[in-house]
Design a protein that fits this description.
By secondary structure, the chain is of the alpha+beta class. It has helices at about 1-5, 15-30, 60-105, and strands at about 10, 30-40, 45-50. The chain is elongated, with a radius of gyration of 23 Å. The termini are far apart.
């Protein structure tokens, strides 16, 4: 049915190993991973959009690949910044708690 009708396909994969297996099957069926988003607002459950390869032009594939590469670079940069910021804030919080302990002792 998939080979005959070539529908757009949405799949969920919560973990990297699941995604790798799904992606291999979809590539064998000549589908291309096109988008990713969370299926639910309350929690992140990745929903993957696959398009039939023949429905996407070579220019669209190249443009999408460049865009995704830029997005990944941005995400990784932001993630590093957030990690550094969280570490810095945690360190400052601990230092404040130590200072309070030194100033007030057991009176807190």
């Amino acid at each position: 049915m998939i080979a005959k009708n070539r529908p757009i396909i949405y799949l969920e994969a919560n973990f990297a190993p699941d995604f790798v297996r799904i992606d291999r099957v979809m590539r064998d069926l000549k589908y291309v991973h096109w988008d990713l988003w969370s299926a639910f607002q309350s929690e992140f459950i990745p929903a993957h959009l696959y398009l039939p390869l023949e429905s996407v032009s070579e220019k669209e594939l190249i443009a999408r690949s460049i865009s995704q590469s830029a997005l990944l670079n941005f995400y990784n940069t932001t993630r590093k910044e957030n990690t550094f910021t969280n570490f810095a804030l945690d360190t400052i919080y601990k230092e404040i708690q130590e200072l309070k302990g030194a100033i007030y002792g057991n009176r807190l």
